[in-house]
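To: structure desk
From: M.T.
Subject: fold request, one chain
Message: Could you run this one when you get a chance? Sequence is below, nothing fancy, just the single chain.
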Amino acid sequence: MVRVVGENIEPGIYPIKEALQMAHEQELDLVEISPEANPPVCRIIDYQKFLYEQKRKQKEIKAKAAKIVVKELRLSPNTDEHDFNFKLKHALKFLDEGAKVKVDVFFKGRSILYKEQGEIILLKFADAIIDFGKIEQMPKLEGKRMMMIIAPKKK
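Reply: Done. Structure tokens follow.
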């Protein structure tokens, strides 16, 4: 026995064979909607159309999902004040647009010896930008680059 629902159907509880026969007469499919219910609930629908509708809904949800943009800025361990301010201004603009900012210090050659200097620059950068964004990932050394990720603050 199953509970049958659908368009052009008298909702009720029918034997499975009778439910299948009703679906066959309308050239539709008998689809189990809720197997846990007592008795199980089945719907008479066009299954291919049902699948198509579900795919379309998933596509819509995916299209409406917020896309996260990550902008990248590169500094060096001995970036001077003017360049630092120039990069800071760009980072503020990116955060204002709602993008995340990935700031990294790239160590060339033997400059890897000055890891502390790179970390100081990133922390200075984070301190200057603290009103506009929150640090998502603290400075971390990966190979020859030390990076930090900053997310925009909610308005």
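Reply (cont.): Helices lie at 16-25, 47-64, 81-96, 115-129. Let me know if you need anything else for the meeting.
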